[in-house]
Structure formats: C-alpha cells, structure tokens
C-alpha cells in the first residue's frame, strides 16, 4: 500500500480544495502500519477561505486549522527560511503560491516527505518510498542542519523502526555530527529535549535512540551527567522493560548514576516528578543491595525506610518489578513477605495498649523489626 485509506464521501468543508494527506499516515501506509491520525496540506488556499468553510485556526506561527467535524489538522502549504539559531529561528511563508513540493522539501526525513492525493496518488519527490523500502532514514535536503531538534527526531525514528532493520544514512549521520560539533545542541531547551526523549523511551528500541545520540556526540552535550556512563546506561535498557512502561525504562537507563548526579540530570532536563521519583527509588535500592550482605531485619528495614515503604506501601512492588530486571537473583518473595508482615503492625492496636507520642513511634518501629525478623527467619536469607 502506498497511500492510507481515504474517505471519499462528499465533504462541504473540503470540496474544491487542493489538499493532500501528508507525513506519518502516508509513511505508515507504505510500511504496512495502522495509523490513527492523518494530517493534511492545503495548496492554493488562504486563511480567509479556510475560516469561511468552518475550519478553526489553531496555529500561531503558521496557519493550521482543525476540520469542523473530524478535527483533523489542515495546514496551508508553507516554506521556512532560517532567521536565527536553534529550532525556533525560522520565518514561515504561507500563501496560495507555495507548491506541495516546496512544502514537502522543508521536512526532516524523506519518509516523512511523501503525500497522497484524495484520488490515492502517491506524490514522492524525494524518494521517501524507496527509503521506506530500504529501511533508510535520510534527510530531505541540506536544510536539515537548520533545526537541531532534527538530530533527536532522527534518533527517535531509529528507535521506532530499528526492529525493522532501519538505519541512518551515512550522509545524514555526517550532518548530525557537524551540527553537534557546531554547538547546535546547546540551542535546544530542556523541555523539547525531554519531550523527544520521553517519546523515544516508549518506542520499540529506545537503546537505538541513545546510541545514535552517543555516536554523534549529542548525548554528552544534552546529558553531561552521564559522562563516562553512556554505554553502560544504554546497555541497561536491554533489561527488558516493556514499551508501555517508559518510566521504568528511564529508571533503568539512569540507574548507573549516584543519587545526587541523577537529581542533577533530572533538574537539567525538567524531568516530571513521577519519572524522577521512580528513578531515585531504583538507585537507592541498588545502592542498598550493593551494601547488604544478607537480608537481615536491619538491612530490609533500612531499605524500606529509604524508599518510604511504610508510608507508601505501593512503592515496594513497583521497585521490585524494576529491580528484578537488573538483579534477577534478588529474593523478591522474602522481601514482599517481610514488608507485608511489617505493614500488619497496627498503630491503632498500639494506641489501644496505651502508647502515645514518641513512645508510640518507638514501639511501632520495635514491633516492625520483630515482624521483619519473624518473616525473614533466623540467619541469612
């Protein structure tokens, strides 16, 4: 299949418009992948004409509209001219004279620079179909170097399609290297770096994303906290966390760091609190495992305290899920049984026995230690 299935029913909003399905839907159809979202480019139209047909304008930097019923995106064909550094330094030009080929030329990779007419004809001026068939991620034009975000996007597409045997073209790799060498990565804001990274962590092969960035030098620029640990961190992603659990994958990737360095990385990338917390808990657990000579009541108690397992009992199972991927020999059953036994200690029962204030807190700790000792049994586990 070269083009995605298109709805040929009469549509008053689009009747008479010269429009083309573009981007991901066309690429995915070529690759035999189901695609939910479709984007459209409209050639020869104006903002006023789109608004008169009931479209709602949503683009601030260039004219993008939502269909009045389907809510699919329709953008006026446009060109871009570099006017400054970074991924925001562009002047956008959209008017009825911009052609479809000019619009496609500004895109990043050839597999994203194909279009399909409403009659089902594939328009492919830059060889995207052949690159799809060959598994090649290739830049459309030398304008690739004008946007440093394209380095990350190329790496992310590699993470998505690596299981299909995709690779980055040597000429594109050379451009990525040159962009890093010129310091272009420093123009990216943390939020955009994190957005691409979080999306890559949910792809089929996230290790391919980080390896591509490592090989062109971008990873050390974007995540200097990982200096001297990049290869090991990438290897941790092979531990087997599922694509649906990108947070767990982030924890695995950063588990090579000490807690203070991890916090520095999370702060620099503006990592959301939930992701940061999961990574920190894994790092604390690994540090505890490396110190613990045996699962004594004291050792297990210190671990549960370190991850706040008494007040946040739901953390224990979650941490053990991730820990087991890196340290499969850990005795999970013993730890879960000990935790359950400690949780069974009831502050209400102790209050009924007359304990209050600081004495109540000390007694809870004592009873929990006794419960851990009973659950773990005598001697090393």
TrEMBL record:
Keywords: ATP-binding, Magnesium, Metal-binding, Nucleotide-binding, Nucleotidyltransferase, RNA repair, RNA-binding, Transferase, tRNA processing
Domain tRNA nucleotidyltransferase/poly(A) polymerase RNA and SrmB- binding: 165-228
Cofactor(s), names only, from the UniProt record: Mg(2+)
InterPro entries per record: CCA_bact, NT_sf, PolA_pol_head_dom, PolyA_RNA-bd, tRNA_CCA-adding_enzyme
Gene3D superfamilies: Beta Polymerase, domain 2, cca-adding enzyme, domain 2
GO MF term list: ATP binding; CCA tRNA nucleotidyltransferase activity; metal ion binding; RNA binding
Domain Poly A polymerase head: start-end pairs: 19-138
GO biological process: RNA repair; tRNA 3'-terminal CCA addition
Pfam family, one: PolyA_pol_RNAbd
Domain of life the protein comes from: Bacteria
PANTHER family: MULTIFUNCTIONAL CCA PROTEIN
Family of this protein: Belongs to the tRNA nucleotidyltransferase/poly(A) polymerase family.
Protein name as annotated: tRNA nucleotidyltransferase (CCA-adding enzyme)
Organism name: Kushneria sinocarnis
């Amino acid at each position: 299949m070269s083009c995605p299935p298109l709805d040929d029913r009469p549509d008053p909003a689009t009747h008479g418009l010269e429009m083309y399905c573009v981007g991901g839907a066309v690429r995915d159809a070529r690759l035999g992948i189901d695609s939910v979202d479709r984007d459209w480019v409209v050639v020869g139209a104006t903002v006023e004409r789109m608004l008169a047909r009931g479209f709602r304008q949503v683009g601030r930097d260039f004219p993008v509209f939502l269909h009045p019923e389907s809510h699919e995106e329709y953008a006026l064909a446009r060109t871009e001219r570099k006017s400054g550094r970074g991924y925001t330094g562009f002047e956008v030009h959209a008017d009825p004279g911009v052609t479809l080929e000019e619009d496609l030329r500004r895109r990043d990779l050839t597999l994203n620079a194909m279009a399909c007419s409403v009659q089902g004809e594939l328009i492919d001026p830059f060889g995207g179909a052949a690159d799809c068939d060959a598994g090649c991620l290739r830049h459309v034009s030398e304008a690739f170097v004008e946007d440093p975000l394209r380095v990350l996007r190329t790496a992310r597409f590699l993470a998505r399609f690596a299981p299909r045997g995709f690779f980055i073209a040597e000429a594109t790799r050379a451009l990525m290297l040159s962009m890093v060498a010129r310091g272009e990565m420093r123009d990216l804001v943390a939020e955009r770096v994190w957005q691409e990274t979080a999306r890559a962590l949910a792809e089929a092969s996230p290790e391919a994303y980080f390896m591509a960035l490592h090989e062109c030098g971008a990873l050390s620029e974007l995540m200097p906290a990982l200096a001297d640990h990049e290869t090991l961190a990438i290897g941790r992603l092979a531990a087997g966390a599922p694509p649906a659990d990108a947070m767990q994958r982030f924890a695995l990737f950063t588990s090579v760091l000490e807690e203070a360095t991890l916090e520095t990385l999370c702060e620099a990338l503006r990592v959301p609190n939930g992701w940061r917390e999961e990574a920190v808990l894994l790092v604390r657990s690994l540090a505890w495992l490396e110190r613990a000579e045996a699962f004594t009541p004291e050792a297990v108690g210190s671990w549960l305290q370190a991850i706040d397992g008494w007040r946040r009992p739901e953390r224990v199972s979650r941490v053990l899920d991730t820990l087991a991927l890196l340290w499969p020999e850990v005795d999970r059953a013993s730890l879960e049984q000990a935790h359950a036994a400690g949780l069974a200690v009831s502050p209400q029962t102790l209050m009924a026995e007359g304990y209050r204030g600081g004495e109540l807190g000390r007694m809870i700790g004592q009873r929990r230690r006794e419960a851990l000792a009973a659950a773990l049994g005598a001697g090393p586990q």
